[in-house]
């Protein structure tokens, strides 16, 4: 058993714009996705408050969409509502894991990468768990989902540093994972090229660990 890390190539500015404009089609897709993803039976649906919290995922999504004040004791509900917004504004995520203790693992990996010259803000610890960008979401009572963000301008830099550092790591699993992060940066660059050609918004890295 462990936690899965999703890396999303998505424009946070586009999510903000769609919410600001009240994009009904987009918000309806998010609502439907939340129901499909979280409905597991009585007492375990997107309409039910999460265990130990005051709000359901469906209610949290409506709070975000309407710009309402957020319930401080419902951070997990808002985190999963944010995941619904992210999942419906980009392609399929890169999946990593499972990790029994993701914060501990990525702290150790970050220390190794920093020793190899990767700037602190570009190490996993520098962006994976920094919180949801542009949305002031309360911290989840369970500690999960953990959300992070790397702005568009830094994604390519991260990829370059990781590609250079990957083969210098001692553990083959660390090398593989760091290479896959570099592959994500290459994928993000390809998405950016498409967006430039079609007048879209450049994409950031959004991380969700749950």
Automatic annotation (TrEMBL):
UniProt superkingdom: Bacteria
Cross-referenced InterPro entries: DUF7691
One Pfam family, short name: DUF7691
Record-annotated DUF7691 domain positions: 1-210
Name the record gives this protein: DUF7691 domain-containing protein
Source organism (scientific name): Marinitenerispora sediminis
């Amino acid at each position: 058993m462990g936690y899965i890390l999703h890396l999303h190539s998505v424009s946070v500015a586009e999510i903000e714009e769609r919410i600001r404009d009240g994009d009904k089609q987009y918000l309806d897709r998010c609502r439907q996705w939340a129901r499909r993803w979280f409905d597991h039976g009585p007492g375990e649906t997107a309409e039910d408050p999460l265990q130990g919290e005051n709000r359901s995922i469906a209610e949290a999504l409506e709070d975000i969409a309407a710009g309402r004040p957020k319930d401080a004791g419902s951070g997990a509900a808002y985190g999963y509502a944010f995941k619904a917004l992210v999942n419906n504004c980009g392609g399929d995520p890169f999946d990593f894991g499972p990790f029994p203790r993701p914060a501990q693992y990525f702290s150790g990996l970050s220390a190794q990468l920093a020793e190899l010259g990767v700037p602190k803000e570009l190490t996993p610890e520098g962006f994976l768990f920094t919180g949801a960008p542009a949305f002031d979401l309360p911290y989840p009572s369970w500690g999960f989902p953990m959300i992070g963000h790397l702005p568009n301008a830094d994604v390519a830099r991260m990829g370059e540093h990781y590609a250079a550092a990957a083969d210098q790591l001692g553990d083959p699993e660390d090398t593989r994972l760091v290479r896959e992060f570099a592959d994500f940066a290459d994928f993000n660059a390809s998405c950016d090229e498409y967006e430039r050609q079609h007048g879209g918004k450049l994409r950031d890295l959004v991380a969700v660990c749950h």
